[in-house]
Amino acid sequence: MHVSSEETAGNVIVVTVRGNLDLDSAPSLAVGLDQALSRDEPRVVVDLSRVEFCDSIGLSTFVVGHNRARAAGGWLRIAAPTEFLEQLLDTIGLAGRLGVYATVDDALAGRPDT
């Protein structure tokens, strides 16, 4: 798995994840999110368009990040999940809680997935 971060003109950090997100790789995402969430009122978009698999440890990383962002007065949004991941997030009830967006641009603009 590979995790990279980029700051947008609007001071939103886009964290891009590639590969499988599981017990072995979730710590890499946690480090990337930790850096992005260390700001005052953090605003983070997690781009999942290239995530092939995600287990419960990966999902919990999103929840922890979301909770941390909210506690700091910011937000964490999930963008561009694959069909598998979108169904998984919906099935376990995280889609509504985390905020899932069809594209990174939609997440940046706050346009909900329809």
Automatic annotation (TrEMBL):
InterPro entries: Anti-sigma_ant (IPR003658), STAS_dom (IPR002645), STAS_dom_sf (IPR036513)
Domain STAS: 11-111
Family annotation (Pfam families): STAS
CDD domains tied to this protein: STAS_anti-anti-sigma_factors (cd07043)
GO molecular function: anti-sigma factor antagonist activity
Family: Belongs to the anti-sigma-factor antagonist family.
NCBIfam families: ant_ant_sig
Family annotation (PANTHER family): ANTI-SIGMA FACTOR ANTAGONIST TM_1081-RELATED, ANTI-SIGMA FACTOR ANTAGONIST TM_1081-RELATED-RELATED
Protein name (database record): Anti-sigma factor antagonist
